[in-house]
Amino acid sequence: MSHKISQAGINLIKSFEGCRLTAYKPVPTETYWTIGWGHYGPDVRQGMTITQVDADRMLITDLAKYEAPVNALSIAGQLNQNQFDALVSFCYNCGEGNLRKLCLGRTVGQIAASITQYNKAGGNVLKGLERRRKSEQELFNTPEKEGTKVPERDINNVSSWAAKDWEEATANGYVDGTRPGAPITREEMAIVINRLRKSFLAKD
Description:
The protein has 204 residues and is mainly alpha-helical. It folds into two domains: 7-140, Lysozyme (Orthogonal Bundle), CATH 1.10.530; 160-203, no CATH class. The protein is built from eight helices and five strands, in the order αβββααααββααα. The strands form two sheets. It has a three-stranded antiparallel beta sheet. Strands 4-5 form a two-stranded antiparallel sheet. The longest helix is centred in the N-terminal third of the chain and has 20 residues, at 52-71. Its EC number is 3.2.1.17. Keywords: Antimicrobial, Bacteriolytic enzyme, Glycosidase, Host cytoplasm, Hydrolase. It comes from Paenibacillus cineris.
């Protein structure tokens, strides 16, 4: 069963990444630019700007990308929620390649002891990376409380990054405005598609 990052892990990532709506390079030697909640890659260009909604959407998408490599680890089934969260934060910051190096051939205990070694950028030790690795190590070593699990999403609340689109979809009659966080069935999807089709036909 695949794990998902909890709010504790998301808070850790946000606390170190911060949110910036204009592209920047935290380290001049980095290949690509960064934007939003630490979104990094070739799709970010110098001078690029985004909205807060864009940044929140990027974070949701990025979290899924960094959860996947942690779930693919051979020791994934041994990880508790705090350990999983710490490794997602590590992967978010250091990348999938370094995650594999950290975990390959190591036990859970050895991984915990090795996290703090990844504190350099451009060959230089950075204080910010030292603090982040220490925080990840502390979270990794924090025992999970019995019965703790990732809280299920409240299906009646709209996520901030989707609020505007949800309001527009409701106003246009594509959805009924209830249970925004609930999964959608193929039957419900058929209804939405047909409502969209009828709307487009009415405009012709």
